[in-house]
Write a structure and sequence with these properties.
Blueprint lengths: L9 E6 L2 H14 L3 E5 L3 E6 L2 E7 L18 E5 L3 H13 L3 E8 L7 E6 L5 E6 L16 H8 L2
Parallel strand pairs: 1-4, 5-8
Antiparallel strand pairs: 2-3, 3-4, 6-7, 7-8
Length: 157
């Protein structure tokens, strides 16, 4: 037996500097058609686009610990866009917010037609927005798992 999920209900991202990250997410999440549900001194939580996204202040004991994508835990969060144009729009928007752009919109080998932008919030947490046409890697013509050479290439940091 298997369970077929219906997406991700919500994500909580713990940020090192809540005061620096709150304005960034306060602009980004409404741009992603999300509405604020909670806005306190330690938690900002929005819902919409079939999910919820929260940022929470790090505890005092971890407030000086910077985000590291290669430490145990989350590497990055990727949001699915409805079109390549949406990816381009997010790129322009976050660039206007002063986000560090890891890579501008580009095609990659993750899936047929994979197109994404990768950027960081003010605390260094990596966020991605991608578009994959059709069924992507779940299309009937795609053989899974991916060929070993492609797996190796995609596994590099």
């Amino acid at each position: 037996m298997t369970v077929r999920l219906n997406g991700i209900a919500h994500l909580y991202i713990t940020v090192q500097d809540f005061a620096a990250c709150r304005p960034f997410y306060g602009a980004l999440l409404p741009f992603l058609d999300m509405q604020c549900l909670i806005d306190t001194e330690v938690l900002y939580y929005c819902v919409g686009s079939r999910t919820g996204i929260a940022i929470r202040a790090a505890s005092a004991e971890h407030a000086a610990t910077p985000f590291d994508a290669y430490r145990a835990g989350m590497h990055h969060v990727c949001f699915r866009a409805r079109s390549r144009e949406d990816v381009d729009s997010v790129f322009e928007f976050v660039r206007g917010l002063g986000a560090r752009i890891v890579h501008p919109p580009q095609e990659d080998d993750w899936a047929p037609g994979y197109y994404s932008v990768l950027f960081e919030d003010p605390g260094g947490t990596r966020l991605e927005v991608n578009f994959v046409p059709g069924k992507g890697n779940l299309a009937a013509e795609v053989e899974l798992p991916l060929p070993a050479e492609r797996q190796a290439r995609l596994s590099r940091p």
